[in-house]
Amino acid sequence: MNRFALSRRELLFAAAALAFVAATSLAAFLFLAWRVEGILAARQAAVIDAEIRFLTLVDEEEGRPVLIRTIARRLKQTNDDQPIHALIDKDNTTYLAGDVDWPPGLVADGSLREIKTFRRRHGEQVTGFGRALTLRDGAKVLVGRDRTGPSSVEQALTEVILITLAALVIVAVAFVMLLNRALLLRIDAVVTAARRIIAGNLHERVPVQGGDDEFERLSAVLNTMLDKNETHINQMRLVTDAIAHDLRLPLQRVKADLERAQRLHDESERTQAFARADAEIDDALSTFNALIEITRAQSGIGADALETIDLSTIVRDVAELFEPVAEDKQQTLATHDTPARARGQGTLLRQALGNLIQNAITFSPEGATITVSTAQNAGGTVSLIVQDTGPGIPEADRATALQPFGRLSRDKNADGKGLGLALVAACAKLHGGRLTLESAGQGLRVVMELPAAQS
Amino acid sequence: MTRRLLVIEDDQSTRDYVANGFAELGWTVERQADGREALEFAHHSTFDLIVLDRNLPGLDGLELLKSLRAAKIETPVIILSAIAHVDERVKGLRAGGDDYLTKPFHFSELHARVDVVLKRKSPAAAAMTLTCADLTMDMSTRRVTRAGREVALLPREFKLLEYFLRHQEHVVTRTMLLEQVWDYSNEPHAAIIDTHISRLRKKIDEGFEPPLLHTVRGVGYRLSKAP
Hints:
The complex is a heterodimer of chains A (455) and B (227). Chain A is of the alpha+beta class and 455 residues long.
């Protein structure tokens, strides 16, 4: 399809707009013509008046022969007012001067009347208006105006109307086509960018010219969406790579265990090999699940899944669950739970807090104190805080610790895959909050900040 | 009386894994692979339990479940799903499922959950005194005694023991305890349960005969008079 072609709807719209503009201009022109005509008629009546008075004066002062000569002279002059003249003797028998026949039955009383007569030379009919006067000896003179054809002013006006309308139509059509073309060009830019993205160039963006019109806004929104999608896809790739990497090892071990079990004859050794394989698979699955959870968490949660939750209840429940584990390491698990109401998903928050407490227990030495608390912050947020007396995380490593597979040296010997903190960070992000790592004396202080529930 | 089970699962190896497992336990097992056909089948026959896959050809598992419940078929349903996310679990239970199990799973885990679900469906859960052999729990005074001697339990130990007493003679798995006693779902932390169990066992079994809280290797625990 021609890129300049207009759709049916556009065409209808353009035609309607055009017809409206044309009709309006035409009406304006007609009104103008009517007004001009009125002014001209008044002026012509005055001209006729002056002429007839002048001719009367000539007749009285200079005599009839001069009057006849004057009228004859008038006939030779061309005049925009298209005058007509006639002079006839008192008996209506002798035509003395002029260019039109004396209109039959015309009363020469000096008032302005319609004139209907014939031109003397070619015999054409003449219509118009004029005044007729009876001179002192009974002869009659007529001065009028020929209105048979259009006047030069009318002709000029008609020309102006036609030319203006033609220009209007041409300009309007050109304008619509240009506008259409400009729209198509900008749509093409979006389409081109979209095609490149479909072809796999995820970093491709819709061109932005820096203006502030609808297209710029659309492009900006599209680009924001594309940025977010690209981040998600890259994150997904990272996770997929990581899963592939992390699953290969346990699967390899499982394969080895199973192959060995096939060759073993001793029943108990065989059972052991199978149990090991089973444990390896469980391990791989839990890594896999954690990664899936992180990825899902990073893509957000529906608002309908959120409920108002008192974080202090979560602190009490989860601390109670982990208490015996801490006791086994002679650690103290202390709680300071002031009420702090957040909008959140209970199960996910319990899971997140469980991960933080498990980390704290694992990395703090025997006899340490782990404090779990809640806080109500200025600025409409609440916090879940877990503070330990472990080795902490050096400032430089903290950003890495929150990434999936951000394995730190302190994690090397732990059985966690370094996913714990990333999972908690993803959970915080999913709730519209954030996770920060801080130093607390010699230990680590993990703060999960969440939006407070509106009370 | 043999129990009747309907397994609705399109993946043949999972279907056989579940069906054969229960057949070995003496159940009568019917197998269905297509959602729409299975719904038809479930309408015309009665079962003690349905094991239902979440994603089915023909008709989605959750839709099938909703249709069953709408038709007032209240057979207990355990949903199997490859989707582990919390939202999905909630969706499954809201649709009328009695439990939700994530694939892959051990048969023993499924079996334990089936037992609990079948027991839950039977009445008499509101008893004020729970007993197992000479162990007694009074729900109104929150007193626990073994052989007439008072056992002092922490609130968390009380909660755990109550769950065991309500499901005595049944195997319960670690994840079941985490989910149902602590409303906590985090499989990697299932080992915490072992710590809680050893505390509880010290209090109710040490110095008494016979032991009541048994470990079922590779599966979980069971509170039972029988060894």
